[in-house]
Amino acid sequence: MYRIDIMTLFPETVGDVLSESILGRAQERDYLRIECHQIRDYTTNKQKQVDDYPYGGGRGCLMQVQPLYDCWKHICNSYGERVHTIFMSPCGKTFTQQEAKRLSRDYDKLILVCGHYEGVDQRFIDMCVDEEISLGDFVLTGGEIAAMAVADAVCRLVPGVLPSEECYEEESHWNGLLEYPQYSRPESWMDNHVPPVLLSGNHAEIAKWRRKQSIIRTKLRRPDMYEKLTFETKQDKKLLAEIEKELEELQNGQENP
User: Which of 67, 146, 186, 200 is the 20 to 30 A CA-CA neighbour of 136?
Assistant: First the structure.
């Protein structure tokens, strides 16, 4: 069973979100377990205070080291071992699908720490945190949204959570490409039609079309991702030639209406 423990000031909110839909059913079937821990339960004062002013001055308050450490230690003691610990932080490395694969593959349990206020005492990070992860180049009011995103992305890769590996292997970012467009019923809607190839029943042509559309979508929408790709097969090289020709014709048509 894959385990994720989340240290947070809002355990009910986080726990409710991660107990619904696919992840909820996976927990019912014992493929994984997600537990949320209230950091305030580990304070030593009646007010359940977890923050204080930073040394050296500055705006706002920091989360104190002691309740964070005691909560973290309680989780580790429950397993009888130190658990790989991630602090959700805008200073961390950017989370990607490759990182989700790594975390689901290399560990069977994780601790995710949700910061608040102006940050957390650096001594907790130095002593207890193994890595810091960010969702991107922006700042949230707390680490809960980031922790839920990481937990969701990692847990859906745990064997048994989704019906098969095919459920995620053709999705965006799995192989460096964005996912191809998809269509469902009705076949025609407001004079917009499903591409004929998808109705042909020719699985080889459908696979080719989907691969081609993924390449086009990635090239146009995420050139940063596209530049990192390598195309070595004859089939891909042929597709690239077709794509370049189509994009060139499209551009010429726009320039000469």
Answer: 67
Domains, the chain, ranges and CATH? 2-155 (3.40.1280.10), 188-255 (1.10.1270.20)
Maximum alpha-carbon separation in the chain: 74
Q: Residue 188, CB half-sphere, CA atoms under 13 Å: how many?
A: 1
Task: Find the helix or strand (DSSP H, E) in which 251 lies.
Answer: helix 234-255
Task: State pLDDT tens for residues 25-46.
Answer: 999 999 999 999 999 999 988 8
**What is the residue-wise DSSP string for 40-71?**
GGG-SSTT---EEPPTT--SS-EE-HHHHHHH
* pTM confidence score: 0.84
Q: Which residues have C-beta within 8 Å of that of residue 213, sequence separation ≥ 6?
A: 180, 181
Which residue reads 């195309």 in tokens? 231
Q: How many other CB atoms are found less than 10 A from the CB of residue 6? A: 26
